[in-house]
Every structure is written in C-alpha cells, then in structure tokens.
From TrEMBL:
InterPro entries for this protein: Aldolase-II_Adducin_sf, Aldolase_II/adducin_N, Aldolase_II/adducin_N_sf
PANTHER family, sorted: ADDUCIN (PTHR10672), PROTEIN HU-LI TAI SHAO (PTHR10672:SF3)
Record-annotated membrane-spanning stretches: none
GO molecular function annotations of the record: actin filament binding
Domain Class II aldolase/adducin N-terminal: 11-191
Protein's name according to its UniProt entry: Class II aldolase
C-alpha cells in the first residue's frame, strides 16, 4: 500500500463517507467506516457519532485507539457500538487498514439467510470462499465478543454478521470500497433473483473459485480500485458540488 499521510487519509475517508451517502448505503447516524493511521497500528480514524454521513469532513473525524479511547481532544465521541468490531479487526489484522460496516436492505436480507451469499451470480462468484459468517449475539457492544468475531472472520475480508449486516476490510480505502460495492451488488442481484420464478443456473466450485481468485488478484495488483473510487468521487462532486466547506480534489 502506498504510504499516505494522516491528512490525505482524512480527506479520502471523508470522501468515502460521502460516497456511501450518495449510493444510499447509510443507516442514519449509525454504522461506521474506519481507517488505520500510518505508523499507528492501534489507532484509527472514525466518524463522530451523531453526524449524517454527508456532514463528515476531514476535520471532524475522530482519532481513537483499538480499545475505544478517544485520542482527539474535544467533546465529540464516536458510536460505542463500533469499537468491538472495528477495534478488534484493526488490532488483530495488519493487512486490514480500512473497515466499512453497512446495513443495507439487500445485505441484511442475505444476512438473514442460512446459506448467506449465493455464488451463482457474477458478483457473488467473486466472493466465493472469501466470506466469513458470525452468529448474532446482539448489538456489538461487548469486548468478550471480539475473539469470536475474529474467529468468524479468519483470514477473509468479508464478514457477514448474521441477522445484522456486513463488514468488509481492505488494505486501503479504495479497495475496501470496491469490495463493499461487489458485496452490495451480489446481495442486490440475489434478492432480485429470488423474486423471479424458475430454476437458477448454478456454477461449479471450479468456476466460482477461479472467478474469486481472478477478482482478488486484479484488485490486489492493479489500480482498478483507486480508479473506481476516484471516478465515484468525481461523479458526486459533479452532481452535488463540493462535499464540505473548503473541499478540493484529493492531492
């Protein structure tokens, strides 16, 4: 991953919040996107609790540690429900620098199904053997759930929180956003497929595995995720103007 300064990470994370808002993947003031700070393996940036995603700016992002202690001075606080999930993963996975948690309708519907994600559509096939599943234990507030969530995630970068929602992780913000987009599209297509009568065309595990490996390799070894992220940010700025007061394109 290209080294980024805290300033650049703050800008890119704020942009990511605005993208999630633009695509309609928000949950009012709830849910979280976090990014680990460079050279600080146990510290990360996250949103201030109470703000809408389109109110997030680089300046009002909070710095917290993996135990939930707020490092940033001031009266604002993050949502405590994010510590167990984000703090646990940031502390345990050196390869996961950005984590995005969502509760979209399609994702929540998939999280309700025993089989979880189908791997028979174009996007679902890209997630084959890349998804962990965690049994619902209530609102993620308690430290004792952390080791069980980490065990459920394993070495994967997608975690379905049963009866709840989804968390994805990536080595940087664009790759995490790209993976979220793939998971969201997979969930949407799966939901729509379920509305249509008739037998689905299934894929073999061999095809699913090759598709997933190719998708993972392309994103890991190319600038595709960054190009997609930048294009999405340009689209939002073109349609809605500056994302916050003083907003300028990322350096």
């Amino acid at each position: 991953m290209e080294h980024q300064t805290e300033e650049k990470l703050r800008i890119q994370l704020a942009e990511c919040y605005h993208l999630i808002n633009y695509f309609g993947w928000t949950e009012m003031i709830f849910n979280h996107i976090s990014v680990r700070l460079p050279g600080e393996p146990r510290r990360y940036l996250v949103n201030t609790f109470g703000l809408n995603y389109d109110e997030v700016t680089p300046e009002n992002l909070l710095m917290v540690d993996a135990d939930g202690t707020v490092i940033t001075n001031g009266p604002t606080k993050p949502n405590p429900a994010g510590f167990a999930l984000h703090g646990a993963i940031h502390a345990a996975r050196d390869d996961v620098h950005c984590i995005i948690h969502t509760h979209t309708n399609a994702v929540c519907a998939v999280a309700m199904k025993e089989e979880g994600f189908s791997h028979d559509n174009f996007y679902g096939a890209q997630l084959f053997e890349r998804v962990g599943y965690h049994t619902f234990e209530g609102i993620t507030l308690y430290d004792d759930e952390r080791p069980r969530m980490l065990e459920s995630l394993g070495n994967k970068n997608v975690l379905v929180l049963r009866n709840h929602g989804l968390a994805v992780g990536g080595i940087d913000i664009p790759r995490a956003f790209f993976l979220l987009w793939v998971a969201q599209r997979a969930a949407e297509i799966q939901c729509h497929t379920g509305m249509i009568p008739g037998q689905n065309v299934t894929l073999s595990d061999e095809i699913r595995r090759r598709c997933a490996q190719d998708a993972e390799s392309v994103i890991a070894n190319s600038s595709a995720a960054q190009k997609m992220f930048d294009a999405a940010v340009r689209k939002v700025r073109k349609e809605r103007g500056p994302l916050w007061v003083g907003d300028t394109p990322s350096p």
